[in-house]
Amino acid sequence: MTNKPHSHAQWSSRIAFMLAAVGSSVGLGNIWKFPYMTGESGGGAFVLVYLVCILLIGLPILMSEWLLGRLGQKNPISTMSRIAGRLKRSQAWVLIGVGGILAAWLILSFYSVIGGWALAYVRYGASATFTGLDGDSVGTLFSDLLASPGTLLAWHSLFMVLTIAIVAGGVAGGLERASKILMPALVVLLAVLVGYAATTGSFGEGFDYLFRPDFTRLTGDVILAAMGHAFFTLSLGMGIMMAYGSYLSDDVNIGRTAMTVVILDTIIALAAGMAIFPIVFADGLDPAAGPGLIFQTLPLAFGNMSGGVLFGTLFFVLLVFAAWTSAISLLEPIVEWLEEKTPLSRLQSALVAGAATWILGIATVLSFNDWSAFTPFGMTMFDLLDYVTSKIMLPLTGLATIVFVGWFMGRDEVRAQLNMGSTAFAWWRFSARFIAPIGVAIVFVWGLMH
User: Where are the transmembrane segments (predicted)?
Assistant: First the structure.
């Protein structure tokens, strides 16, 4: 492959960049995974540990990825090659970029299928499919969706087309425009749903469940689960934030912007919990229902409540928006690399990357039905892709990133890039060199053992 002349795009403003970064962070992890993990882990104690881990692990790595991207001004692979070369470090550090882009491709292949589920449930909600369903019927609705490869493939295809369409527009015409529309819409939808949850009569119970810590539930597994989710919710280790950082101008304060993104990401995750748990408690449902909380438990509530058609539809539109903003960011580092390293245009790069992702996603579609008996290493293809990326690739890429910035880059250059005061920088550097690497290493080992 040969490099072609390439004028690197820039975000038009700090706000545009921040909306895109928050859009990447706010995904199914906030609306789907965070509430059910909180439910399984006893509520407020999990939330408290999660917030501490976000600050000590997530924030230093997020800032490191942006810093590298802005310094390199290229796709993640070329960025690491350029910086390692300038610092006279081994070119083996390029594997950070390679691992990030590969992980983004693998994750998007099955993330798109789950995004397709959300699209399907928008249709179910709008057509009053949930109305009057009992627990068994709701379970059957979900299992029937998974059992139909044709239906799953159609929704997966639609979701990928929507994602490609945005990324093909470039930074200003695609990523920025989508973020400026989807993120405010997502916040409005979430506010409406929280407002509705306040009318259920169980809002106080939901609030206590989320914010009143029960430290008797705080086991080692709960602490490690919170640590792991703090890492993954910010889209770390996937090349995304490095790619987004490459479009970042020098006048943006990385530290202040990263803190804002972390705060907004956390507020949205907590708001999602406040939208979900009052409904769960009002209907006598199980808050620890696990992954089925969104697709099997909540439809039961929506189907038997006043205004359920409207609010059920709004909820799954919210879920689609969250999935869509993250999917856009997952496709971006792959497209950026293709656009810079091949003769392909932006549109062609988006089509090639999207098609490759869509094809791989067929393996996930079939893993729920026709290929369900195909279980390499004792896992379906969906479970295998999820395991390899979340348990191995992301922790290793994130660990390598923070070690490179914390130990192999010059202290003065890093401080100048982060533009932090001496006390704040001392905290950041200590966390980047010791706390974050140790935390990620623990998450990695624990993930392999479970």
Answer: 12-32, 44-71, 92-114, 153-175, 182-203, 223-245, 257-281, 301-328, 349-368, 388-409, 430-449
Domain covering 28-449, topology: Amino acid/polyamine transporter I (1.20.1740)
Most confident of 7-21, 23-37, 408-422: 408-422
DSSP labels, 133-180: --HHHHHHHHHHHHH-HHHHHHHHHHHHHHHHHHHTTHIIIIIIHHHH
CA atoms 179, 184, 187, 188: torsion sign: negative
Instruction: Say if residues 226 and 50 touch (Cβ distance below 8 Å).
Output: yes
- Is residue 1 scored above 70 in pLDDT? no
Q: Is the pLDDT of residue 38 over 90?
A: no
- Residue pair 421/114 in contact (Cβ under 8 Å)? The answer is no
Domain boundaries, given as residue ranges, for the chain: 28-449
pLDDT given for residue 407 in this prediction: 97
Under 8 Å between Cβ of 24 and 402: no
Closest by Cα among 303, 367, 23, 330 to 160: 330
pTM score of the predicted model:
0.93
Q: Which of 1-10, 54-63, 214-223 has the highest mean pLDDT?
A: 54-63
